[in-house]
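Margin note: ligand = benzoic acid.
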Amino acid sequence: MNPKENATERDTRVMQFYEQLVEIEQRLIPTGLHVFGRASELSEKADLLRMVASFDRPEHGARALPALVAEALGIEGYEALLEDTSATETREFVDGIVSEAVRQFCEEGAQSSVRWLSSRAGVDREKSLPTFLLLEKTAEQLDSNHEIESLMRALRGEYIEPGPGADIVQNPFVLPTGRNTHAINPYSVPSISAFARAKRTADALLERYVSEHGRYPRAMALVLWGLDNIKTQGEGVAQALHLLGVRPTRDALNRATEIEVIALEELQRPRIDVVMTVSGIFRDLFAPTMALLDKAVRRVATLDEPLDMNYVRRNVAEKIEADGSKFDDAVTRVFSNAPGNYGTNVNFMVMQSEWETSDTLGDLFVTRKCFAYSRDSKGRTVEGREARQLMDDVLSRVEATYQNIDSFEVGITDVDHYFEYLGGISKAVEKRAQARPAIYLSDSLSPQTKIRSLAETIRLETRAKTLNPKWYEGMLKHGFRGVAEIENHVANTFGWSATADAVDTWIYTEIVKTFLLDPIMFNRLRELNPHSVQSLARRLLEAHDRGYWNPAEEIMEKLRDALDDLDIQSKREAST
Ligand code: BEZ
Ligand code: MG
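Resulting structure:
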């Protein structure tokens, strides 16, 4: 290798490293818990408003500020800058102007920012005003809180004004809080903009898989949640449809009940077979959408196309050939809990440490989720028929699993539901396909679509939250509850070891160093909540005992010492 190539490679690596740092730095994280009835103490209000201002909001005539600034400066396409690592300086320049404008807005109001942007970057005042007026309204509503008043009114049986469900960045009009959150009309799902966005995400997902495996996956398993699809107007649903190579169409009542096939010439890739496991909440809220997904798979399975361009048709034909299945069975792809049931229980089993081998976790997932929602040969709806063998069979062909992260507020180590679902299904696939699937997540937390592997997502979440002093100090302001939140994050991280073995060993090492081996921090946590610190220490010991973490013996000794200390303290407290 000549020295010049070396330097180029080094520059590329430095650039990639820099990009990763920026990604962590720009990640919006909660820096404390919401206290019911209290207006947000948003020291990071400017950060939140900057994110609100980063998206076009055609429904309010408001443009995304970064795009407006870039346009006014004669820079073509802000979105393209996001993809282009050689344009980092230009992007930073634009972002710097946007941040300054939002900072000025927080201090001096909309008119001042509009004037400043006009003189600084030549942004037309009329164009930026609607965006700042939107920020003004959002900021005002962030400062007020009617939650306790609404609760009291609800308890008296009075009327509570309805409001949409989403997070503030997705839809600033979820504010003010303290309203009666409503769902959406299931027939409106997926919306036109959700489908457009989902197309980009699904393409990026396939691109990532192909770049790592050299070909398309023969089948994928998707997790669909109800609240996510409310918040995104059905982005997850639209991703499934796009992978199949179809789009929804509307009937005479403007309901998304029909399917239009995207021609292979337009699609320019094979149709991917998708297995959909939907949550109990999704099943309850989106019955017509489940029928739409089932209809889409059936339509694709009957298209007269080459098998190497239509994986649904190929897999259905193979199954019929192999075991004489009926078409209606072979084409079943939508699964959920039995009627009236919710959840996978994988999270409970992991939290209680009551499992021998990790296969048990995947088997439990299938036991809970193997109920088919489809049609029989006479076209009658089948609502939750037990179909364990069918589910085992479709999962045995899956090569990649995927879930869409929809929110700025909740990530994959904040709650145990991501690992119970995406981890649970991945573990189920691993046994049935006899190979660990590629596991991906997408990120609607930035204006550009980003696909990450599970391991990458865990690293990012760990750096941005669990190990980030800004995050844990924010939690510790809440005392007892804050320590419990830290312990929850560690337990949820462990959930990804249990279900997918996707946690780097350095993550556990840094956790133990940060929270248990630093004497000052250890004592702070013990004072606030000895019970949660004890659980955290036990969880780390479990990670070691189950073979997910193998640190230096010296670290294990210190961890055991800390645990002994905590056990003594808890016995002493129990006896007093
Ligand atoms: C849902 O929205 O479907 C959901 C929410 C929490 C946990 C699991 C599913
Ligand atoms: Mg817990």
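The pocket of benzoic acid (ligand 1) is lined by residues 225-227, 279, 281-282, 417 (CB under 6 Å).
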